[in-house]
Predict the structure.
Amino acid sequence: MTSIPTRVPRGRLRITHFRSLLGTVPFFAYVAIFLVIPTLVVAIGAFTGDGGFTFSNVTALGDAYVLDAFGRSILLSAVSALIGAVLGAVLAYVLVTAKPDGLLRRVVTAASGVLAQFGGVTLAFAFLATIGLSGFVTVFLRDHLGTDIYANGVWLFELPGLMLVYTYFQIPLMVIVFLPALDGIKPQWREATESLGGSTWHYWTRVAGPLLAPAFLGSALLLFANAFSAYATAAALVSQGSPIVPLQIRGALTSEVVLGQQNLGKAMALGMVVVVAVVMTLYALLQRRTAKWLG
């Protein structure tokens, strides 16, 4: 005798489906509170003035000092992302060639996870204590080797110093995001290249290189967005002036000298949102291409 499958009532299916969605409520609440609502506040404020709707805040983004701030922010993000991507990719390759369960890979991977989030005031203080005007490395080089790293000016508190500090957390972040792509490269592909008479140069330029290029570019874009949106480290290091956009926004929102600039700050924040959105869209497209080949 064959058993007849029992039919689950439609109401019970709906209850089960509803219960399965309850687990996503905290996530969507978090996204709404910390992403959607602030974005709406910024977008609305960028087009709001004393008399209501206005384009004056957005048109003010064309002022020279705002364009300079965006230019310096893009330069800072691009340089730190490029250096971090190259050095991080090299370090990730070293980890791939090591034993998968070896001590080196476990230690470096764990350290990268910590150092990638090591930013803000803590990172600024670490660099001040190390290579600041009275940092122990600065004092040692000056007293024992006769080398003054600030002979041509205190560059740590300017754009070159920010590039150095930002690169510090860009390298471990690159290790984390690029390592899975390197793990996806199969040893059989290199063996096949060698069996066909190809050299190491042929393997990297015609096999592994083209496969890893989208992952590398996508990781570099992620590093760019990470640096472009960083605020706390720069705010802790730069006490005078606003060389980059996040500090310009801080000045517009908190300045007691020039009043009524809050909506201009929101317009600059909206400009940052647009830049990051474009970068992350390109990152998503490159990640999709990477998953197609290395998935």
Notes: The CA atoms of residues 247 and 254 lie 10 Å apart. Strands lie at 48-49, 52-53. The mean pLDDT is 87.
